[in-house]
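Hey, can you fold this one?
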Amino acid sequence: MAFSSGNSSGPMAEINVTPLVDVMLVLLIIFIITAPLMSHKVKIELPEATLVQKDEPEAPKVPPITISVKEDGSLYWNDEKIGKEILESRLSTAAQLQPQPKLNLRGDRTTKMRTITEVTKIAQGQGMLDIGYVATKEKGQ
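Sure. Predicted structure:
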């Protein structure tokens, strides 16, 4: 801290700005040197894409299979009541189709998760790859 040598008594209350100016000049020089380096870009030529439509026929869309599970464990294949043995045979047949249909699994609100898990394991065991769970959105959300 600097002391004045005049008539006033006590320390001088001025800030020494010399170190602040030195730091600011150093930062200015650093930014002047690095700014052109940061804006330097490598020029490359990207390949151009050509959109050619293929005349191949699209695979026919297969409707999804819906399996509904009631609270008592009864199973429905697209609204047709079936048993577990028939479910396994139908799933193995559906798993061999090309393209394989999607499997939508629905359960009642009160259906036990154990029952849904059993049906999922049966479907995976028969080779079904795309298994989805269907739920309804609650009102107000």
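The mean pLDDT is 84. Let me know if you want another pass with a different chain boundary.
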